[in-house]
Amino acid sequence: MKNIYNLLITCFTASMLFTSCGEFGDLNLDPNRPSTPLTSSLLTGAERNVSSLIGDATSTLYVQHLSEKQYTEASRYQTIYFDFNGFYSGPLMNLQRIIELNTNEETSGDVLAGGSNNNQIAVARILRALFFSVLTDRWGELPYSQALQGADNFSPTYDTQEFIYNDLLNELKEAAAQIEVDQPGVTGDFLMSGNMENWRRYANSLRLVLALRLSNVAPSIAQTNIQEAYAGGLITENFMYPYLADANNQNPWFGRYLTRVDYAISDTMFDFLDPLNDPRLPVFADPAAASGAINPMSYGVSNTVAGSITNDAVSYLGMEFRQQNSPLAIMTLAQLEFSLAEAAHRGFIAESASAHYLNGIAESFTQFGVFNTNDYNAYIAQPEVAWDTNRAFELIGNQKWVALFLQGFEAWSEWRRLDFPSLSPAVDALNQSRQIPRRQAYPTTERDINTTNYNESVARQGEDTLDTRIWWDVNN
């Protein structure tokens, strides 16, 4: 039977938006079926889907940044199977098409309006690596080396996560080197506005973040990639997704609040921030209507318990994050500083771990608009925050968790890798183990349609459940 995501890919390719090609008199060409895709449109379409990577609610609930107020099933891990087919048929196929059109000698000259061939290929490779990195961190093994082939392969095999990670690191290294800053930048690029130096720096930054995931399973590979990426130059400002005051490209948290009043600050987050007088707390949460104070919502309680709490008794997600055009982070300077702090502590780079750690807190305060020298100095002087080499992983993990507020997938990955902060599962968990998920299960279409390859992956990786650990998620 045909694999559904490859079938969708074929359909998508057949219906792709194409530019007109041909002059008056090209009587053998069908003007309604032009042959050369507009690569700028393909890139824009792929970039639009980055929103699904950074605006996800389920992963944000896994790491207990927020609690659900109305219906708490997601906080209690009810959903087991998650669908990845749309990523393959949508943004990943767009990016693959860009690469193919710019690589093929027969079409490479026709798509130069989208930027130089090398620059288009490089950006597509970087974004493809971003998408696949999030996918493999969610599911583990994936169709990868045989994916995106359309009708040529309806039943792709699954690659191990070790293979995928090694290839992603190499892809990012090669893409950064492929960028031509003196040639036309990519068009249709609303994330970086065609700035190829910024794309090069982001490739290095993403490579560093991904390499750090391998610290416990492949430390030599992690160190080499971190050193090279760091030396190549990292992003110099927060990389944000620019939502618009328009329903066609609006902040997903804004959209969620249109349908129901939900997503309050969790008691987990509140209980960490409030004793430290953390100035980020009143940014993360609005005062409760009934009291005028910040009151958290209990995490992971049953619908009955949640329903017994009035809506005006809890503090919802801060308005700064849920305006229609509120930007959301793709990667931040705070995130990188904490990554460098860990790399330094592990001896991967010859830097000061404490300096990067403190820089991470400062960058996070700045990002959320609360930096004040006196407040900052008072904050970092507290015993629970002050740098201590003997507690390096705990301190970095705790502060990185806060700094990654609403960056659900990234925060979830880092929590699984570091095991900090210490999070307790939902009190009314619905999954079999009643533990916080370590991965998400494959879509049932894989079990039913790509059965042989699915079974081989499960045999290697472990049961297709929320509890199976992926390759880099080892016990600390």
Automatic annotation (TrEMBL):
Keywords: Lipoprotein. InterPro entries: SusD-like_2 (IPR041662), TPR-like_helical_dom_sf (IPR011990). SUPFAM superfamilies: TPR-like. Transmembrane segments: none annotated. Coiled coil: none annotated. The keyword Heme does not apply. This is SusD/RagB family nutrient-binding outer membrane lipoprotein.
